[in-house]
């Protein structure tokens, strides 16, 4: 490359930098406008999302983009992300109005592991649009997280509850049986497992892999193909990454996220090693007091119940939900300690606890069961992308 070509390249890069800055300013302007939309809905019982309007918006943008030479998939991907951000910001704003006693310029949150763990990443992602500063408390166990919240040492606890690859995290479900904490939020965190190392090396040099138990389960197909590798279990992904950074050894690696690995100066030797391409973990946020959910926001209610050893008892409970038009999105059973062959059922439903249908359902379930307890009502955080007819793409 000669000097003239290099100068031209520098000019082009400066133009790209200026354009990126203009885009950021426009994104900020658009976000401010959507918050004004939320303010207009504050005193109206109108859903935050209008998916028909979102679809019409996407179709119009796709057609306008085609005139500018932009690919339909590119336009769709960009604006689906923008729409998701808009919805989540509107929900966060409406929640602050519904719960004026909960102000969050600064929050303290407990999570499993230290910096770089998936729970750490989920905590920062959840509070990125809700608080200016986060006081972090890394813990070595789920029980410790709940104890810190119960004792008032931290405001919130972030707990993984299920994974699309390895299933439910039973220890957390068991702990929820014996706590007075309330579930006040949820977030779904993409889990992108990589094999991380502290030094430049090759896969065939790796002799020891450090990781938390969950990543080992979720990457079993990749690990089964490796030979003569020793597995070392750690209390958290963050502990495993810290260990590998400390060793600075070409024969050791850790399973974790590339994003978390950057905090420990680790780089990805192998990417996308999970059994499933789409691997996500759902986290719940617990606090000492429950919250109210704004009527404009889609909500979940989580409760537990014990039916006793009566044939068809669970079916009778589920029929109550069906009769009330309440959609059940999760059913999990766990044994009740000290009572052999009896189970506690954990149920998630897509309903606001304050609605008449939900209140009636809980009242009828109370009459029908030996034990029932509402663990919390909270906004649905997962935003399904607005679909566009294939004919438009």
UniProtKB/TrEMBL annotation:
GO biological process, one term: chorismate metabolic process
Residues annotated as binding substrate: 13, 30, 41, 50, 54, 86, 90
Domain of life of the organism encoding this protein: Bacteria
GO molecular function: chorismate mutase activity; prephenate dehydratase activity
Gene name linked to the record: pheA
Subcellular localization: Cytoplasm
Record protein name field: Bifunctional chorismate mutase/prephenate dehydratase
Domain Prephenate dehydratase: 108-288
Pathway(s) the chain acts in: Amino-acid biosynthesis; L-phenylalanine biosynthesis; phenylpyruvate from prephenate: step 1/1; Metabolic intermediate biosynthesis; prephenate biosynthesis; prephenate from chorismate: step 1/1
Species in which this protein is naturally found: Thalassotalea algicola
């Amino acid at each position: 490359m000669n000097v003239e070509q290099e100068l031209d390249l520098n000019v082009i890069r400066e133009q790209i930098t200026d354009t990126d800055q203009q885009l950021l300013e426009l994104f900020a302007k658009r976000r401010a406008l959507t918050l004004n939309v939320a303010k207009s809905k504050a005193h109206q019982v109108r859903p935050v999302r209008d998916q028909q309007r979102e679809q019409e918006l996407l179709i119009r943008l796709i057609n306008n983009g085609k005139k500018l030479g932009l690919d339909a998939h590119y336009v769709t991907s960009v604006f689906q992300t923008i729409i998701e951000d808009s919805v989540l910001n509107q929900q966060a704003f409406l929640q602050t109005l519904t719960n004026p006693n909960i102000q969050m310029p600064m929050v303290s949150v407990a999570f499993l592991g230290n910096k770089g763990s998936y729970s750490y990443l989920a905590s920062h992602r959840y509070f990125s649009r809700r608080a200016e500063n986060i006081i972090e408390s890394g813990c070595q166990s789920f029980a410790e997280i709940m104890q810190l919240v119960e004792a008032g040492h931290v405001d919130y606890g972030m707990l993984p509850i299920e994974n699309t690859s390895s299933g439910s995290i039973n220890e957390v479900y068991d702990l929820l049986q014996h706590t007075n904490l309330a579930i006040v939020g949820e977030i779904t965190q993409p889990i992108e497992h990589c094999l991380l190392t502290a030094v430049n090396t090759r896969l065939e040099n790796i002799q020891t892999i450090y990781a938390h138990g969950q990543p080992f389960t979720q990457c079993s197909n990749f690990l089964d193909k490796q030979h003569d590798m020793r597995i070392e279990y750690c209390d958290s992904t963050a502990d495993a990454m810290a260990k590998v950074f400390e060793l600075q050894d070409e024969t050791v690696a850790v399973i974790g996220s590339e994003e978390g690995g950057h905090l420990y100066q680790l780089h990805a030797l192998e990417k996308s090693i999970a059994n499933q391409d789409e691997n996500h973990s759902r986290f719940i946020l617990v606090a000492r007091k429950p919250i109210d959910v704004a009527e404009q926001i889609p909500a979940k209610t989580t409760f537990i119940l014990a039916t006793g050893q009566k044939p068809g008892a669970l079916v009778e409970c589920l029929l109550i939900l069906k009769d009330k038009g309440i959609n059940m999105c999760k059913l999990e059973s766990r044994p009740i300690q000290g009572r052999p062959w009896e189970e506690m059922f954990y149920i998630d439903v897509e309903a606001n606890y304050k609605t008449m249908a939900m209140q009636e359902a809980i009242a009828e379930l109370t009459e029908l069961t030996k034990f029932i307890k509402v663990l919390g009502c909270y906004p649905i955080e997962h935003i399904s992308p607005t679909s566009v007819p294939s004919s438009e793409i």
